Structure prediction request, 250 residues.
Amino acid sequence: MESLKGMAAIITGSAQGMGKGIAMVLAQRGVDVAICDVKQDVLEATAKEIREATGRKVITGAFDITDESAVKKFVGEVESGFGKIDILVNNAGIHPLKPIEEIESKEWDLVFAVNVKASYYFCKAILPGMRSRKFGRIISISSEAGKNGGTVAALHYAASKGAVLAFVRNLAQQVGADGITVNAIAPGRIATAMSSAVSPEENQKFINNSITKSLGKPEDVAYAVCYLASREAAFVTAETMMVNGGTLRD
Ligand SMILES: NC(=O)c1ccc[n+]([C@@H]2O[C@H](COP(=O)([O-])OP(=O)(O)OC[C@H]3O[C@@H](n4cnc5c(N)ncnc54)[C@H](O)[C@@H]3O)[C@@H](O)[C@H]2O)c1
Prediction:
């Protein structure tokens, strides 16, 4: 996809897993990437790996994305460092697996803070620049659980991922006339640390129920991000793309 060359992106929660895969694949296609995560050591190792593999510029930010002032500071640093931000991938997420009886109110708020509210912080900080340049691609990682409630998902997690779908459909309407698209990706089970917290039996059930007879890889989601981030996807907005091996069809 030639049209990604020369773009600049922020990917949240990108020290490992899907975020790392997305950052690497974007960089391989000529995008300078800003990666951020709470896991500072892993983040620096990932930055080194991306620089060595692709030769692209990589900016890192080790902070908690639920801190609005830290988000604003990072967005400012990335805008100065890259001169612009074309792509925002709201990827960071947490999924404490437990039944409703064990969810404390504080944890409910934390799940929504990381999985939903932090995306509002990032979008608010990034939109003025995107609007002035009349171009932007915002992609939020939801989940199959946000569409169907999930099979093993926790209640707060599924609810937060459903909120992500409404978030993109609303924001898309507010920014579309400025050349900015806002879309979601709803992955099925992807082989990362998050899915390894699910029992092997449950992951096998997912595989059996899939058309592809497999779990997904972080790169499978990254390739979908590449399309939605491209100039060619200008007419695709307020959409949810499922990347799930055919497990959920609607
Ligand atoms: N793995 C799956 O099967 C799957 C399926 C559907 C959706 N998702 C979604 O995909 C996204 C990526 O998940 P993953 O599987 O790579 O998970 P992961 O746990 O491997 O990675 C998530 C990253 O986000 C970071 N993070 C968490 N809270 C943070 C915070 N407050 N501030 C900064 N960074 C923070 C973590 O440190 C971690 O590096 C998440 O939004 C997740 O909900 C995952």
Remarks:
- The chain has a mean pLDDT of 97.
- The longest strand covers residues 180-187.
- The beta strands are 8-12, 32-37, 58-62, 87-90, 136-141, 180-187, 240-243.
- The pocket of nicotinamide-adenine-dinucleotide is lined by residues 13, 15-19, 37-39, 64-66, 91-95, 114, 141, 143, 187, 189-190, 192-195 (CB under 6 Å).
